[in-house]
């Protein structure tokens, strides 16, 4: 059985995050200034004590390159641990002309994050966010700053990298339940 695209990508992002957090903090760098071992799979920032934007990535382009003028889908998770809902009213940045916020019902407009809940933005959404008319080409691991604007909580700017090509993009079968039958 083949998983839907967004489920495969979400599973791959989770696997990347788990594998990165399993790396030891004591591992020395081979080359000063090289890649730091460990850390989050994608950038995340706290907006308020109760609101965070996590795992921000630009979708991997089908042909490996987002060209100038392309519309680029965004991945993110918005966590609200508060007792009041939060509303994402805008996404903006200097490297794209506009952003489309697409709600659960498929219409454009603000996105609500319910109290004590998470909102997951995925290219296969809704809900989703699409950066319109990027001003330069982007490859995997290149990034642009993206500002998330919330109605009452303020805003936060996060460096959003293009996701690496995911193993979830290939075909694979859903694992079977390893629990034996009690026959």
Could you tell me the mean pLDDT? Answer: 78
Shape: globular
Query: What is the helix tally?
Result: 1
User: How many beta strands in the DSSP annotation?
Assistant: 12
Helix content: under 10%
Secondary-structure-derived class: mainly beta
Look at the structure and name the CATH superfamily of one domain: PCu(A)C copper chaperone
End-to-end Cα distance: 25 Å
CATH fold topology of one domain: Immunoglobulin-like
CATH architecture of one domain: Sandwich
Strands, helices and their partners?
Blueprint: H1 5-21, E1 45-46, E2 51-58, E3 65-66, E4 72-80, E5 86-92, E6 96-102, E7 111-113, E8 117-121, E9 128-134, E10 138-139, E11 143-150, E12 154-161
Antiparallel strand pairs: 1-2, 2-4, 3-10, 4-8, 4-9, 5-7, 5-11, 6-9, 11-12
Structural summary, described in words:
Helix content is 9%, strand content 37%. It has 183 residues and is mainly beta. It has a domain at 41-166: Immunoglobulin-like, CATH 2.60.40.1890. It is globular, with a radius of gyration of 18 Å. The two termini are 25 Å apart. 26% of the residues are buried.
């Amino acid at each position: 059985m083949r998983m839907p695209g967004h489920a495969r990508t979400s599973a791959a992002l989770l696997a990347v995050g788990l594998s990165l957090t399993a790396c030891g903090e004591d591992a020395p760098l081979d080359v000063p200034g090289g890649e730091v071992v460990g850390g989050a799979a994608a950038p995340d920032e706290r907006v308020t004590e109760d609101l965070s934007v996590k795992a921000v990535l630009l979708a991997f382009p089908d042909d490996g390159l987002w060209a100038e003028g392309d519309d680029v889908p965004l991945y993110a998770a918005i966590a609200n641990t508060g007792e009041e809902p939060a509303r994402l009213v805008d996404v903006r940045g200097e490297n794209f002309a506009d952003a489309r916020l697409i709600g659960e019902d498929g219409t454009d407009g603000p996105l609500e994050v319910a109290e004590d809940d998470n909102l997951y933005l995925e290219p296969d959404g809704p809900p989703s966010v699409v950066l319109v008319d990027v001003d330069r080409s982007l490859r995997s691991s290149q990034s642009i700053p993206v500002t998330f604007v919330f109605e009452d909580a303020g805003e936060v700017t996060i460096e959003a990298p293009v996701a690496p090509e995911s193993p979830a993009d290939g075909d694979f079968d859903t694992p079977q339940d390893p629990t034996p039958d009690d026959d």
